[in-house]
Write a structure and sequence with these properties.
single chain; alpha/beta; nine-stranded mixed sheet; four-stranded parallel sheet; 25 strands; 30% helix; 25% strand; globular; binds adenosine monophosphate
């Protein structure tokens, strides 16, 4: 069954609110069907055929979400892109994905049109943060009725790019079954029903806000309070009307600084979920003391959807990511040999199940390298399973930095810095940061006599990299520490600079 067939089969019989915006505007389920039908017709008019990619880099808006649903209905493959990506970065994604249509912000129209023309993309449309643009205009003139294109379980529903450790991003191919099965599992596991009102403050170009939050809520037939971004005041304003929220750890550290966060304010809430980065045990404890709610931490990734979750009933253990979800197998293996390890032994986490993606777009070798012969996907996360069955994540095999819930692969930032005149080499590391979890930090070696400053480096990088990837500090050193094999010892750097942001103010 296609994901949209599943969504359609669970649309409440009685019309009700699907989305409510901060300004009071509402979209009901019937309107969802009519408006996504119009957009699906507009996509077909633009030449989008089943299996084609629709690449979308637009601000979060209800129309953006309807475009996602319309793409599914047209049998096409939804390909969301982080709104922070620069045109230089978009060039790679569009060249790699070869979409039939690119939808972008009106401010980037000319740049996108140029990139699209160079890569043979047939059409470019615009959609702004208010839901206006050429796509909306085209949809307004199209009929609301649309015959949903049937799709098989293994057909693609979406491609989400992950950052590549070697600098090249990989497109994770997600099938109809991957997304549908995981959302159904989460509805049951987290007890979502039509009575739920989900407070949605996550971006919708990432698996967390798009699939974990939206698909789950849709399959429960609930409602969403749809905020354009996380803002602690706005979240506190709407919390009394909500029953559930999904967030990254930064949401919770920021809410804890809000004087309005009290037991009374959260009295109507039944569930707070955290994921995408490690939640500090201290945050879990403080939140429980303030609100009476034990944040439920879960673990997943773009390639696998959700793998594990703390229990709904039972002990939600701080510092763990809970148990494998029903139907998902998780094991710990020796990174080198692949041999299975026992309880409490640390190794690489591997997963298998209907949630696991079908491979990397146009990268069959990379795909093969990340699967074991028996079908387990090698996550690259290092962890253990304790004697009670709780999964713990203890680190990341690939030195991935997670800052405010976003992944930054050091290699990509290092490549940009190394290309600057006067730079000999660099190492980019994550240092503990009270607000972001980790702060991207660049340690740079300059050529003798080169006059390089922190602000000069940051100015150049700002034009090349998405904001969340920019170093918070650039430090200059004479040499990078190396081991006897010549490898840069990032652990030594992390230790040396572990207090760099200790006094950084938490954002209010
Ligand atoms: P993404 O593909 O952007 O969702 O990032 C996936 C990565 O985020 C995983 O491979 C983990 O390294 C990390 N991650 C996700 N959830 C958690 C969690 N609850 N605790 C620690 N790390 C997490």
């Amino acid at each position: 069954m296609s994901l949209f067939e599943l969504i359609r089969s669970r649309i409440p019989a009685q019309d009700k609110t699907f989305l409510e915006m901060a300004d009071g505007r509402r979209i009901g389920y019937r309107e969802l069907l009519a408006r996504s039908g119009r957009i699906a017709n507009a996509l077909v008019l633009r030449g989008v055929e089943p299996g084609d990619r629709v690449a979308v880099q637009v601000e979060k808006s209800p129309e953006n979400l309807l475009l996602y649903l319309a793409t599914l209905r047209a049998g096409a493959v939804y390909l969301p892109l982080n709104t922070a990506y620069t045109l230089a970065e978009l060039d790679y994604f569009i060249g790699d994905a070869r979409p039939a249509l690119v939808v972008g912000d009106p401010g980037k129209r000319d740049g996108l049109a140029e990139i699209a023309a160079r890569h043979g993309v047939g059409a470019v449309d615009t959609l702004d943060s208010q839901g206006q643009g050429s796509l909306t205009d085209a949809a307004a003139g199209a009929p609301a009725d649309f015959a949903d294109v049937p799709r098989a379980d293994d057909d693609l529903a979406a491609i989400l790019y992950t950052s590549g450790t070697t600098g090249r991003s990989k497109g994770a191919m997600l099938t109809q079954r991957n997304l549908g099965s995981n959302a159904l599992t989460l509805v049951d596991y987290w007890r979502f029903t039509g009575a739920d009102v989900l407070l949605h403050a996550l971006p919708i170009y990432h698996t967390h806000g798009l699939f974990v939050a939206t698909n789950t809520l849709l399959l429960a037939g609930g409602s969403m309070i749809f905020l354009p971004r996380f803002d602690a005041d706005e979240v506190m304003r709407f919390i009394p009307k909500a029953t559930a929220m999904m967030g990254v750890p930064t949401f919770y550290t920021r809410l804890l600084q809000h004087p309005g966060l009290t037991r009374e304010a959260c009295a109507h809430m039944r569930l707070f979920v955290s994921g995408s980065a490690p939640l500090l045990a201290e945050t879990h404890r403080e939140f429980r003391e303030r609100t009476g709610h034990a944040i439920l931490e879960r673990y997943g990734m773009t390639e696998t959807n959700m793998n594990t979750s703390n229990p709904y009933d039972g002990d939600r253990r701080a510092g763990t990511v809970g148990f494998p979800l029903p139907g998902v197998e998780v094991r710990v293996a020796d990174a080198e040999t692949g041999a299975a390890l026992g309880p409490d032994e640390i190794g690489v986490l591997e997963v298998k199940g209907p949630n696991v993606f079908s491979g990397y777009w146009r990268m069959p070798e990379k795909t093969r390298a990340e699967f074991r012969p028996d079908g387990f996907f090698i996550t690259g996360d290092v962890g253990k399973i304790d004697r009670d069955g709780y999964v713990h994540i203890v680190g990341r095999a690939k030195d991935l930095i997670i800052t405010g819930g976003f992944n930054v692969y050091p290699k990509e930032v290092e490549s940009e810095i190394d290309a600057l005149p006067g730079v000999v080499e660099s190492a980019v590391i994550g240092c503990p940061h009270p607000d972001f979890g980790e702060g991207v930090t660049a340690v740079v070696v300059c050529a003798k006599g080169a006059a390089m400053t922190e602000s000069a480096v940051l100015d150049v990088l700002a034009a090349r990299l998405a904001r969340f990837k920019l170093p918070k500090r650039v430090l200059f050193v004479d040499d990078l520490p190396r081991n006897t094999m010549g490898k840069v010892q990032k652990n030594v750097l992390r230790e040396a600079h572990k207090d760099l942001y200790a006094n950084a103010a938490k954002a209010g």
